[in-house]
C-alpha cells in the first residue's frame, strides 16, 4: 500500500499531492513531530494564480513557473529542517524545485483516490481551490518515480497514522506502514 521510492537524504521536504490531499494539515502535524518549520506553498503563489484558481481556471506551466521557483528558493534559503506544502504534480515541477533549492529535497507524496479527495474538498471551507479543478489536478499528476528522492504514503488512514508512517520513513528509512 505505501512504498518508499528512494531513501530520503535531506532535511528539506516538499509534501506533495493534488488539491485536497492534506498537504497543509499533514504537513503541519509532521513539522511538529519532526521539530521542523512548515510553510504552506499556497502562500508563495502570486496573487494572479490564486485569482485564476478561485475562478476555476487551471494553472498553466507558465503560471506555475514563478511559484515553483519561489518554493525552491524558500527551501534554499532555510537553514533549519523545513517542510513546504506544494502540489508538485509533475516531475518537471519537482525538477524545477530541486534546481532552485540547490540542495537535496525529499518529496512526500500523499496518495489518495479521487473519490476520497473530492469528499474532503467538499467539506473544506475558505479555500480558493474549487472542487471543479480536481480533475485537472489528477490529469497533471505524475507520481514520483523510483529514481526520485520520494516517499509515498496512502492518505486512507487517519492523519496521525499517516504522519507516524512518514516520521518512521524519514527518520528510519523504513517503508511506511499504515493499516
Give, in order, the helices and strands.
EEHEHHEHEHHEH
Beta content comes to: 5-15%
Structural class: alpha/beta
Number of helices: 7
Q: What is the share of helical residues? A: 40-55%
Can you give keywords for this protein?
7 helices; six-stranded mixed beta sheet; 179 residues; alpha/beta
Task: Characterise the protein shown here.
The protein has helices at about 25-35, 45-55, 60-75, 90-100, 115-125, 135-140, 160-170, and strands at about 5, 10-15, 35-40, 80-85, 105-110, 150-155. It is an alpha/beta fold and about 180 residues long. Strands 1-6-5-2-4-3 form a 6-stranded mixed β-sheet, sandwiched between helices. Helix 1 packs across helix 7 (about 160-170) and helix 3 runs parallel beside helix 4. The radius of gyration is 15 Å and the shape is globular. The termini are close together.
Entry summary:
With 179 residues, this protein is α/β, with parallel strands linked by helices. It has helices spanning 23-34, 47-54, 61-76, 91-101, 114-123, 134-140, 159-172, and strands at residues 3-4, 12-16, 37-40, 82-85, 106-111, 150-154.
Write the layout of secondary structure elements.
Elements: E1 3-4, E2 12-16, H1 23-34, E3 37-40, H2 47-54, H3 61-76, E4 82-85, H4 91-101, E5 106-111, H5 114-123, H6 134-140, E6 150-154, H7 159-172
Parallel strand pairs: 2-4, 2-5, 3-4, 5-6
Antiparallel strand pairs: 1-6
